[in-house]
Specification:
With 308 residues, this protein is α+β, with helices and mostly antiparallel strands. Helix content is 29%, strand content 28%. The longest helix is centred in the N-terminal third of the chain and has 19 residues, at 90-108.
Length: 308
């Protein structure tokens, strides 16, 4: 049995569920929107065997029957059904307990888990992740993480073009630093920011599913292609890309080294062929890419879960 957990109507989960249906897989869906009607309990015995029960509505499933998991979980505090509960509603505690127990079980569950909680943790610190990336021969941009306005000013003045973004795993919009931003550097004292030397070239998103690789080239004049419409009033153009075999192998090795089964890797390939890696996303919204390129990422993910 394959467990798919998250918000089932979200495109990445929905497309994977459709692909699993096409393969006639035995699937159990855990919807986070039903947090007050879902429970999980498990234990690990002295031999390291993990077992327990997952209840979803009236259905009870022994955890030992689950051979693979695709979990794309969101913070339950942002789920509308949770937010509508009164502050003193006991359902809030049950929802929180489900989130805690589920993420803990994902870390120790036997079988294939896409992706385990601990494996996803490297994305919480971009500087830390950059050190792991460099072990695989991929370049990383010159970077400064600081809350010192003077250091940020010097970095800006000594590089032809600088971009800035969050240093954490929180989503942020990558922006090109301009002279007008120098007036705001005092706010850095409240929160460190990551500054990087801009790298010219072609943005390439690489999705790794086990040993399979799907690369997409992105063409745009925007600093952050995800927000191209907001930044340059024109959508980014995406198309399938033939990645160099060595780079593809590096991406697969990097994904495995991070303990991930599925990852979205952001590369930039310079005009002279140098390959820079910005980050590894452990929960990629792959449908943004496959929707335009028609790459069978969902089918690959479903097949990967089926062969666990």
């Amino acid at each position: 049995m394959i467990l798919v957990a998250g918000i089932p109507s979200e495109p990445p989960l929905q497309e994977t569920l459709d692909a699993l249906h096409d393969l006639r897989a035995d699937v159990l869906v855990l919807s986070q929107r039903h947090g007050t009607d879902t429970d999980i309990a498990f234990a690990v015995d002295r031999a390291g065997i993990v077992d327990g029960v997952l209840r979803s509505g009236r259905r009870h499933v022994a955890l030992r029957e689950i051979s693979a998991v695709y979990a794309r979980l969101m913070d339950h505090r942002h789920i509308p059904e949770y937010q509508r509960l009164e502050p003193d509603d006991p359902g809030r505690d049950r929802w929180t307990a489900l989130a805690d127990h589920l993420t803990t079980w994902l870390d120790v569950a036997p079988g294939r888990v896409v992706n385990r909680t601990s494996a996803m943790a490297s994305n919480g610190s971009k500087p830390y992740q950059a050190q792991l990336i460099s072990r695989h021969g991929l370049l990383t941009p010159e970077t400064l993480v600081t809350n010192d306005p003077d250091q940020a000013r010097e970095f800006y003045e000594t590089h032809p073009r600088v971009v800035y973004k969050s240093a954490s795993g929180a989503r942020s919009i990558v922006q090109t630093m301009a002279s007008a931003d120098l007036e705001r550097l005092g706010s850095l004292r409240a929160c460190p920011v990551q500054f990087q030397s801009w790298v010219p070239g072609t943005d390439v998103r690489v999705h790794v599913v086990g040993a399979e690789v799907f690369a997409t080239a992105i063409t745009t004049t925007a600093t952050d292609y995800r927000y191209a419409m907001a930044q340059v009033d024109e959508p980014a153009h995406l198309q399938g890309y033939q990645l160099d075999d060595q780079v593809a192998e590096q991406c697969v090795a990097l994904t495995a080294d991070l303990g991930l089964e599925f990852a979205g890797i952001d590369l930039k390939i310079t005009p002279d062929g140098q390959v820079y890696c910005f980050e590894v996303n452990p929960s990629p919204a792959y449908t943004y890419f496959s929707g335009q390129t028609k790459q069978p990422i969902a089918q690959a993910l479903a097949g990967h879960l089926m062969t666990a």
